[in-house]
Amino acid sequence: MISSPVTWQGHDLVDSLDWILPSLLEDHIQVWAMTSHTQHPQVHTLLDKMAGASDQPVPAELRATPSLRSPTLYIFTSGTTGLPKAAVITHLQSLKAAAGFWAFGATQEDVMYICLPLYHSAASLIGIGGTIELGATCVLKKKFSASQFWKDCRKHDVTVFQYIGELCRYLCNQPKTDEDKVHKVRMGVGNGLRQDVWREFHSRFGNVRMCEVYGSTEGNLCFMNHIGKIGTVGRSNFFYRLLFKYDLIKYDMVKDEPVTDQNGFCQRVEMGETGLLLSKVGATSPFFGYAGSKQLTEKKLMRNVWKGENVATTEVTETLGMVDFIQEVNVYGVEIQGHEGRAGMAAMIVRPGHAFDGKKLFDHEEMEMTSTFKQQKFHLVQSGFNPATISDLLYVLDYSQESYIPLTDSIYQSIIAGERKL
């Protein structure tokens, strides 16, 4: 665990810090270099410290962390759509990424070859993290060299390597030799491997199992191609969709915005159509965003994407029955002209001595009681939700106020006219 801000530099990059080193120190950011000595007294050296480090386990107080969701480091995005952003990486994300090699079947007997930059999550979290997780061996190359790649693999008995798509293309572009298939490499883990390069790589270097991973550093969803099917970035199944909610929506590449219908809702893509991948933020798929301005994080979030999902009225009845000021409740659905499906409504009796509290109904978290009575819904469904024809008080959920507010005739008319989203 890193308890204070730290930046790591290769020893050959230390001189480039001259103009920003004072400001880093003012912000209490330590600078460490991968060397045994440096001419900069304010830069810490690492290799000499590692040589004299104890081989005993790290004390528990130094390993303690408030929670798995506590930040452990920042990884900057590539900045392809703007300035690079500092993605918040938590202990939870680090542990999940470190399980990547294991998920593809790697073991502690494997020798991992990592030649990708460590400032990227693939090499740092999956590569180094995965090697430590397994207790495997890591061959850490300072930079990728197409001419030295297979020589290194043969020299160190490499069995697993990390790649990006272009890396494999560079290997295929090298002059052919009689030793192209003389190696122990059995698996490659990475992303962005083109179909034609994939086939050529197999044909030339043997049946190396290529394991594609699709995701982003700050993202909350990941796909993995476990079966090695050429051209597939990942696999999904029934159980995966139960845990992680995601969809592909239509996206206008020219306007750089989602394509919406007449009611302002997103539209799912057709089979074979290109679209934008959305992943629901939840307990099993949290999104920790970016360090700094909250606006950077908010730009990655979309709300009111769908009209809604089918929900059993009995489930809603039981949930509302747990609110302390509600004595009895009956939930049903009503049709709204120009809208698909039905909108949820609830007829309720307020407990004597209590008052309806729309704010509490919105914020309700603790469950206090239950009600499972079965009730007749027919006449309630027929009466709809027109305040002009129903004598009882009606309430509607207002997201802007985060409360249930009285359903007035003007609000009713705006719903009918399609001006107000439900």
TrEMBL record:
Record keyword Cell division present: no
One annotated GO biological process: long-chain fatty acid import into cell
InterPro entries with a match to the protein in the record: AMP-binding_CS, AMP-dep_synth/lig_dom, ANL_N_sf
Catalytic activity entry: a very long-chain fatty acid + ATP + CoA = a very long-chain fatty acyl-CoA + AMP + diphosphate; tetracosanoate + ATP + CoA = tetracosanoyl-CoA + AMP + diphosphate
Kindly list the GO molecular function terms attached to this UniProt entry: long-chain fatty acid transmembrane transporter activity; long-chain fatty acid-CoA ligase activity
Spell out the family assignment given in the record's similarity comment: Belongs to the ATP-dependent AMP-binding enzyme family.
Give start and end of each AMP-dependent synthetase/ligase domain.
46-236
For whether the record's keyword set contains Ligase, the answer is yes
- Keyword terms of this UniProt record: Ligase, Lipid metabolism
For this entry, the protein name equals: Long-chain-fatty-acid--CoA ligase
Q: Known PROSITE patterns for this protein?
A: AMP_BINDING (PS00455)
Transmembrane feature ranges: none
- Gene Ontology CC annotations of this record: endoplasmic reticulum membrane; plasma membrane
